TrEMBL record:
Any GO BP annotation: fatty acid biosynthetic process
Lineage: Bacteria, Pseudomonadati, Pseudomonadota, Gammaproteobacteria, Enterobacterales
Residue ranges constituting the PKS/mFAS DH domain according to the UniProt record: 1-271
Region (N-terminal hotdog fold): 1-116
Active site: H26, D190
Annotated Carrier domain residues: 745-823
This protein's name: SDR family NAD(P)-dependent oxidoreductase
Family in the record: Belongs to the short-chain dehydrogenases/reductases (SDR) family.
Record keyword Transmembrane present: no
Length: 898
C-alpha cells in the first residue's frame, strides 16, 4: 500500500505464472486474461483493506479493457480515491517498469454491513429449469467463440435451463491453498459467469462489460450452486443482462451479482496488447501422480541397446510382473514373432568428463533404429536412459544419455507410426517397481522421468526469473569460439555494449573480409579490445595452446562456445562421416573447453545450443543430438558446482545459421511455430539471458498459435502449460476419422483430406492451390515434407502408411487410390480377426467356450480388458482370448461406463 496525497491509497502487486499460475488458465483467444471475477476480487479486497471493514460491496463496475497477463509477469495497481464521500476505484496494469499504464476497470466500493443474505427456493427453481445442457458442448462452444478455458476454469458440473433462467452446479477442480484469503474465489465466481454465458447458443464471443452491484455474504466456499435470471436480451444480440446468485446446497446466499451486462467482443491481439518483447523458455520437470492405467499382462518383451549388468535384473523384474517372455532381440527374425514391447535400454557408463565413448554410443543407437525400421514391425518401443535430464538437485547428468534422449525424440518425429515411450531413470534394475510399471503401462506422456520412486513429466514454460548477475561486470578476458562467424561477431558487439573490455575471438580461419574488419572496428569503438587467434576447437592440443596463450595476457573470466555447423539429415541418411562432421566443433569443442576451464573460476561458461535439442524438428536428428549433449554438459558442470549455462537458440535469419535457408525450408520452420529470429530479436534475448542463472534456456520466437494449428487436436503433453488442451467434444469434432460412407464418397473424402494436408504443409493459402493430378513435388514437397504428409494422413485415416508414400504416389489422385486400397485391406483383416475373437479358452478348465454376446467395437487396450471382464461376469478363472489379451483380474467396470 502507498498512501496518496489527500485521501486515498494505491495497492500494487505483481502477477506471474509462478505466483498465480491458475489465473493463466483463463484465456481469451490465445492470451491469458484476468477474468472479470478476478478484477472484482482485487477491487473488493482493496476496499476492505482501505475501509477496514469486512463487508464490502462493489458498485458500478465497468471493465474498460482486457487485463492481459503477460507470461513474463504483470504489474497491477488498484487506486482508491475519496470523492464526495464516495470511494472511487481504478485498476491499472503494465508489463514492465518502462511500459505505459493501461486502465482496465473503474468501480466504487461501500461498507455494506447491514445487508441480510437472501435465501432461494432451489426446488422450485430446479423444477422450472427442466432442460439439461451437455457440459462438453458448452466448453466446445466457448472455445469456438474464443474462450478456450484451461483446466482450472472448467468446473461447470451440471447445468439446467429454460429460456430465461439457468441453474448450475459449480466446483473448483483445484482446491486453493488458503480460501480464507478471498471473499469469493475468482474461479468460483467465474464459473457462475460461465453459467450465465451458456444461455447464449451462438458462437459469438461474449464477455462481461459492466455490473451494477456485487455483494459477498459468506466466505470459504470451493463449490456452490448458481442461479441466473436473465432480465433482458438485446434485440441485436449484442448484449444481455442478468442477475446471478451463488448459494450453498440449502439455498443460503454466498454472493450476488446484480445488473450484469455482457457485450460482444473480439479477442485481444497479442501484438498490440503485449508488445513485441520476446520470451525466454525453459523445460521444467513437474512431479506427477502415479500412473493410473492397466498393466500389460502376458506381454512378450524383446530387449536391445547397450549390454549392461542390469539387463538380467530388469528381465527378471519384468517376468515377475507378468510378462510371459523377455529375450534379446534378433532383428533378422523379429518379424516371425514380433514382440509386444521392444525395450531399448541405454544404461551408459557414468560420464568420464572426456566424452570418451559418446560417438560409439550414438552411432549404435542410429544403427539399431535403422534395423528396427527396416524390420517393418510396429511394436511399442520403450527407450530407456539413465540420468539424461536434471530433474532433482542431486542428479548428476550424463551428457551422452542426454544426446540419446534427443535421438529418441527425433525417432518419434520421423517414425510416428511406431509408438514410442521415453523413460529416464536413476536406477535401471529389476527392483525398480516404478520402472517396471512404466514400461508395461499405456498413457499419453511421451517422456517420463523417475527419481527415487517419484514420477516427473516435462513441460515447456516461460522463464520467470529476475536479474541475478551482469556479464558486463566481468573484468577479465572473454573467450568466444566461432568468433568470426556472424553469430560470434554479434555476440562480441553486444558484450562490448554491456561493458566487457577484453575479447578474444577464436576461429579456424582468421582471414578478415572488409565486412568483418568493419564489425571488429565497431566493437572496439564500444570500448573493448579485440584479439584474434586461429585454432581448431575440436583439437585438444590446439585448444590447450590457445588457453595457455590467453592466460599469459590475463585472467579468462568467461567463455562463450558458439562454434558449430548445421546438418539436415533424416535418421536413415546418417553416416559415420556426416555424424563426425556435425559433432566435431560443437561437441568435441565443448568437451575440451569444459575440461580445460574447470580450475579457472569463471564468471560464466555459456554454450550455444539449439532449440532443435528440445523440439527436435524432422531432419535434424544428429544436429539435435549434438546440441542436447551441450545441454547435458551444462547440467553435469552445475552438479559439480561449476558455472554453466546453455542457450538453445531458435533459428537466426539475416546473418545467422539459417541465412541460407530457401523459402520452403523457412516455411517449414514457420509452419511448426518456430519463427526465424532477427538480429534485433536475438540481441534482446541475449541481453535478457545473460542476467539469469538458470542452467538451460530456450531463446526462440515460438508462435504458440502456429504450434496449436500445426498439432490441431493432438497437442503433445509437452506443450500443455502453454496451450490448454481442448475438451473431449472438441477433439471428437475435429477428428478426421473417415466415416463409413459409400466407396465413391470415401474416395472423395480421402482426396479432399490429401489436398488440405498438402496445402497446410506447403504453407499454401488455399486448398484449391493443389492440383489433384499434379505431382506434389512440383509444388515444392521435399522428403521431409513427404514424411510429414505421410504422418498426418496416417493419423487421420487410422492406418500405417509407407515412408515412401509421396515418392511412390506423387499426385493426390494416385495417393488417394493407394490409401483407399489400404483401407479395404485393413478392413478385411479386421473382419477375419472378428470371427476368431469369439472363442475363449479357460486356463482353469482347458475347455473352449463360445461367448454369444461378443460385439466388435474399436476399444483401447485398457477398455478391452474392462469390456470383456464385464461380459465374463464374476468367474474368477483366467481367460486367454485368441488374437486378444490375457485378463488377470476383475477391474473397475464403472470406469468404462463413466
Amino acid at each position: 500500500r502507498i498512501s496518496l496525497a489527500g485521501e486515498g491509497a494505491v495497492y500494487e502487486s505483481r502477477i506471474t505464472p509462478a505466483t498465480h499460475g491458475w489465473l493463466y488458465d483463463h484465456r481469451v483467444g490465445d492470451l491469458a486474461v484476468m477474468p472479470g471475477a478476478g478484477i472484482i476480487e482485487l477491487i473488493r479486497v482493496a476496499g476492505e483493506e482501505y475501509l477496514g471493514q469486512p463487508n464490502i460491496s462493489v458498485l458500478a463496475l465497468v471493465l474498460q479493457s482486457p487485463l492481459i497477463l503477460a507470461e513474463a509477469g504483470q504489474n497491477i495497481q488498484v487506486m482508491i480515491r475519496n470523492n464526495d464521500e464516495q470511494h472511487e476505484i481504478t485498476v491499472w496494469s503494465r508489463t514492465t517498469r518502462n511500459a505505459e499504464w493501461t486502465m482496465n476497470a473503474t468501480a466504487e466500493v461501500i461498507n455494506d454491513s447491514l445487508v441480510t443474505p437472501p435465501r432461494l427456493d432451489l426446488t422450485t427453481i430446479k423444477a422450472r429449469c427442466s432442460t439439461q445442457k451437455d457440459i462438453d458442448e458448452i466448453y466446445q462452444k466457448f472455445a469456438v467463440s474464443g474462450l478456450p478455458y484451461g483446466p482450472v476454469f472448467r468446473g461447470l458440473q451440471i447445468i439446467w435451463s429454460n429460456e430465461n433462467e439457468v441453474f448450475a452446479s459449480l466446483k473448483m477442480l483445484e482446491e486453493p491453498d488458503d480460501l480464507t484469503r478471498f471473499g469469493i474465489h475468482p474461479v468460483l465466481l467465474d464459473l457462475a459467469f460461465q453459467a450465465y454465458l451458456s444461455i447464449d447458443d451462438s458462437d459469438v464471443l461474449q464477455l462481461p462489460f459492466s455490473i451494477e452491484r456485487i455483494v459477498v455474504y459468506r466466505r470459504n466456499y470451493s463449490e456452490a450452486l448458481a442461479y441466473v435470471k436473465v432480465s433482458r436480451f438485446g434485440n441485436d444480440h449484442q448484449s444481455i443482462e442478468a442477475d446471478v446468485m451463488l448459494t450453498d446446497r440449502s439455498g443460503n446466499a454466498i454472493a450476488s451479482v446484480h445488473g450484469m451486462c455482457i457485450r460482444q467482443a473480439t479477442p485481444p491481439d497479442s501484438q498490440t496488447d503485449t508488445g513485441s518483447v520476446k520470451k525466454i523458455y525453459t523445460l521444467r520437470w513437474k512431479e506427477a501422480g502415479e500412473v493410473e492405467c492397466g498393466i500389460w499382462q502376458g506381454a512378450v518383451v524383446a530387449m536391445a541397446g547397450l549390454s549392461s549388468h542390469n539387463n538380467d535384473g530388469l528381465s527378471a523384474g519384468l517376468v515377475n510382473c507378468g510378462c510371459s517372455r523377455v529375450s534379446l532381440v534378433d532383428f533378422e527374425k523379429i518379424t516371425d514373432d514380433p514382440p509386444d514391447i521392444l525395450l531399448l535400454s541405454w544404461d551408459t557408463d557414468e560420464y568420464d568428463g572426456r566424452g570418451s565413448n559418446y560417438k560409439d554410443v550414438l552411432l549404435t543407437a542410429v544403427d539399431i533404429i535403422k534395423q528396427l525400421v527396416a524390420s517393418g514391425i510396429t511394436s511399442k518401443v520403450v527407450w530407456l536412459t539413465r540420468k539424461a535430464v536434471r530433474v532433482i538437485a542431486d542428479d548428476q547428468v550424463n551428457p551422452v544419455a542426454t544426446a540419446l534422449l534427443s535421438v529418441a525424440r527425433a525417432f518419434s518425429k520421423e517414425f510416428s507410426v511406431i509408438p514410442l515411450s521415453v523413460i529416464d531413470v536413476d536406477d535401471i534394475s529389476g527392483n525398480n517397481l516404478a520402472l517396471i510399471t512404466e514400461i508395461l503401462c499405456h498413457h499419453s506422456e511421451a517422456e517420463v522421468a523417475l527419481r527415487e520412486g517419484s514420477r516427473f513429466i516435462p513441460r515447456l514454460n516461460v522463464l520467470q526469473q529476475d536479474v541475478q548477475q551482469a556479464v558486463g561486470a566481468s573484468r577479465g578476458i572473454i573467450l568466444i569460439t566461432g568468433g568470426l562467424g556472424a553469430i560470434g561477431l554479434n555476440i562480441a558487439h553486444w558484450l562490448a555494449e554491456l561493458g566487457v573490455t577484453r575479447i578474444v575471438l577464436v576461429s579456424r580461419n582468421t582471414i578478415l573480409t572488409k565486412e568483418k574488419q568493419s564489425k571488429i572496428a565497431d566493437i572496439e569503438r564500444n570500448g573493448a579490445s579485440v584479439s584474434l587467434i586461429s585454432a581448431d576447437v575440436a583439437d585438444l592440443a590446439s585448444l590447450t595452446q590457445v588457453m595457455e596463450q590467453i592466460q599469459q595476457e590475463g585472467r579468462i573470466s568467461g567463455i562463450i562456445h558458439a562454434a558449430g555447423s548445421r546438418n539436415a539429415q533424416l535418421l536413415h541418411e546418417v553416416t559415420s562421416s556426416s555424424f563426425s562432421e556435425v559433432m566435431a566443433a560443437k561437441v568435441d569443442g565443448a568437451i575440451y573447453l569444459d575440461l580445460l576451464s574447470r580450475n579457472l573460476n569463471l564468471d560464466f561458461f555459456i554454450l550455444f545450443s539449439s532449440v532443435a535439442s528440445t523440439l527436435s524438428p524432422e531432419g535434424q536428428a544428429m544436429y539435435a543430438a549434438a546440441n542436447a549433449f551441450l545441454d547435458g554438459l551444462v547440467d553435469y558442470r552445475q552438479s559439480l558446482g561449476l558455472t554453466a549455462c546453455s542457450y538453445a537458440w531458435g533459428p537466426w535469419g539475416e546473418e545467422g545459421m539459417v541465412s541460407g535457408l530457401d523459402a520452403t525450408q523457412a516455411a517449414r520452420l514457420k509452419n511448426h511455430g518456430i519463427e526465424v529470429l532477427t538480429t534485433a530479436d536475438a540481441s534482446q534475448l541475449f541481453r535478457a539471458a545473460v542476467t539469469c542463472t538458470e542452467g538451460n534456456l530456450i531463446l526462440a520466437d515460438l508462435n504458440i498459435r502456429a504450434v496449436k494449428n500445426y498439432f490441431r487436436e493432438d497437442i503433445p503433453a509437452f506443450w500443455c502449460d502453454l496451450i490448454p488442451a481442448g475438451t473431449a467434444a472438441e477433439k471428437l469434432a475435429k477428428a478426421g476419422v473417415l466415416a463409413p460412407v459409400l466407396e465413391v464418397d470415401r474416395y472423395n473424402q480421402i482426396l479432399t483430406l490429401i489436398c488440405a494436408e498438402s496445402a497446410r504443409i506447403l504453407s499454401l493459402a488455399k486448398t484449391s492451390d493443389i492440383d489433384k493430378n499434379q505431382s506434389l513435388r512440383d509444388k515444392g514437397l521435399d522428403s521431409l515434407m513427404g514424411l510429414e504428409l505421410r504422418k498426418a494422413l496416417g493419423k487421420k485415416v487410422g492406418i500405417t502408411l509407407p515412408a515412401t508414400l509421396a515418392l511412390d504416389h506423387p499426385t493426390p489422385c494416385a495417393m488417394a487410390d493407394f490409401i483407399l486400397n489400404q483401407l479395404a485391406s485393413e478392413e478385411h483383416k479386421s473382419s477375419s480377426v472378428a470371427e476368431t475373437v469369439m472363442t475363449f479358452t479357460s486356463e482353469s478348465t482347458g475347455k473352449q467356450m463360445l461367448h454369444k454376446d461378443v460385439v466388435l467395437v474399436p476399444l483401447s487396450l485398457g477398455q478391452e480388458r474392462l469390456w470383456f471382464m464385464d461380459k465374463l461376469g464374476e468367474n474368477k478363472s483366467l481367460y486367454n482370448m485368441h488374437y486378444g489379451i490375457r485378463i488377470s483380474s476383475k477391474l473397475d467396470i464403472q470406469r468404462l461406463h463413466d
